[in-house]
Amino acid sequence: MQQLLRQIPQVDELLRMPALMQAARRQGHTPIVNAVRAELEALREAIRHGELEQVPSSAQLCQEVLARLECERGYHLQKVINASGIALYTNLGRAPLAKEALQAIQQVAGGYSNLEYQLTEGARGSRNGFVEPLLCRLCGCEAALAVNNNAAALLLALAALAGGRETLISRGELVEIGDHFRVPDIAAQSGTRLIEVGSTNKTHLRDYAQAIGEQTGVLLKVHTSNFRMIGFTESVPVAQLVRLGQEQRLPVVADLGSGALLEAEYYPFEEEPTVPQTLRDGADVVCFSADKLLGGPQAGILLGKRALIEQMRRHPLARALRLDKLSLAALEATLQLYLDSEHALKSVPVLQSICAKKEALEQKAQQLASLIRERTPQQVQLEILPACRPVGGGAAPGQWLEGYTIALSSPSRTAAQMEAALRAAPVPVIAYIREERLLLDVATIAQEELLLLAQEVAQVV
Ligand SMILES: *Cc1c(COP(=O)(O)O)cnc(C)c1O
């Protein structure tokens, strides 16, 4: 062992190798020195544990160091191909952005911008000023405010409108949104006291009416965006709650979560409340996520009566929860696409995926199938199957969209092996397994990704 340890080359000796000197010129001296030290330390460890019988040559060690550097240099937050069919997959970053939104980010991010500067006056401006008029026009409301995400929007709305007082919420709307986070817990952080009314399955208007008192500040309506109750159930529609609110001079805040910006007829599902309709129903404030059905960047949108939005804008939390310039750039560009509903359907990726016609998906499936077929041996079985997919990410719960999936099985590898290998591919692929077959739903795969996906699939089958 001692003899092996003595054979390990010095750090300087490796650093003088041409390949590493070249790497140092490209990446700077420090990362190379650190990688060499780490490599030699790993070598010593292996020798002490009796795992090595021979010290590798300097050339071999040099290759190892370069591989180590390559590993460290790659970004750890990386692109994946979503072959799950779930358009709003929170763990995969929710909405992919439209090309227009990406261009807007690029224009704004690399240099300075007029984020809070009025070019006409040469004076301070408002970062909200770019998206507010667009939102008001698209949704039909007096005022709008964009913050970090919808959880932030709810927190700010309740802090500004019911901080130190009470907020009424139905027991049927105590939603857990994911990763153990619950809407009532977030709401409570705003400093309002939540008063639960009604029962789990039934809440009547009189339940709210009876709970209203001196301390009541807000009537809160939370859209059950990720679950559905059926059977002996009843909840109070926004329009009814608004009438009670008007009688009692209390604002109604509606947390829609999913944020469908177009009119209902454009979406392929029923029972998803849209933003414009909720405002027409009279909600005083509506909040929702910009990266769910809207298909924009992560943001929380607050819409409604001018005086109420103004109260939120002036609240100290508004500063803590404000939106950054990259998201604002992407949000403005995405909202502009909505100025024409048909244009939005064609250019917002989430809408493309959710509203795709069955025939278009079948065509895409055939295209992917032949790209894979051309690259795989005959023994690999491939079939195009009709498939149903959920929307995901807190929108249209319990409603399934029809489309197509590619089913693969191989004589030499199990579905689980193929699925794991695809997750480890250079551009990882998130597929799924049914009845021992590997499935790729084409609804969430972009046209530009088809060829690369076929190549990676051919590698793993
Ligand atoms: C998704 C959702 C939220 C949280 O929105 P984020 O943008 O993820 O913060 C809050 N309320 C409801 C009803 C939701 O569906």
How would you sum up this structure in a few lines?
The protein has 20 helices and 17 strands. It is α/β, with parallel strands linked by helices and about 450 residues long.
Task: Describe the protein.
The chain is 43% helix and 17% strand. The chain has 461 residues and is an alpha/beta fold. α16 (341-347) packs across α17 (349-355). The radius of gyration is 28 Å and the shape is globular. The mean pLDDT is 95. It binds pyridoxal-5'-phosphate (PLP). The site of pyridoxal-5'-phosphate (PLP) has 15 residues, from α8 and β10.
Number of separate strands = 17
Silhouette: globular
Whole-angstrom Rg = 28 Å
Round the mean pLDDT to the nearest integer and report it: 95
Largest sheet entry:
7 strands, mixed
Q: What share of the residues lie within helices?
A: 40-55%
Q: How would you write the strand order of the largest sheet?
A: 4-12-11-10-9-5-8
In DSSP terms (H or I, runs of 4 or more residues), the helix count works out at 20
Task: Note the gap between the termini.
Answer: 43 Å
Small ligands present: pyridoxal-5'-phosphate
Secondary-structure class: alpha/beta
How are the SSEs ordered, and which strands pair?
Blueprint: H1 2-7, H2 11-15, H3 18-27, H4 29-48, H5 58-73, E1 81-82, H6 99-109, E2 117-118, E3 123-124, H7 132-139, E4 143-147, H8 150-162, E5 166-170, E6 176-178, E7 181-182, H9 183-188, E8 193-197, H10 205-211, E9 216-222, H11 238-248, E10 252-257, H12 275-280, E11 285-289, E12 300-304, H13 306-314, H14 316-320, H15 325-337, H16 341-347, H17 349-355, H18 358-373, E13 381-390, E14 400-409, H19 415-423, E15 429-430, E16 432-434, E17 437-441, H20 450-460
Parallel strand pairs: 1-15, 5-8, 5-9, 9-10, 10-11
Antiparallel strand pairs: 2-3, 4-12, 6-7, 11-12, 13-14, 14-17, 16-17
Helix pairs in contact: 3-4, 4-5, 6-15, 8-13, 16-17, 18-20
Bound molecules: pyridoxal-5'-phosphate (PLP).
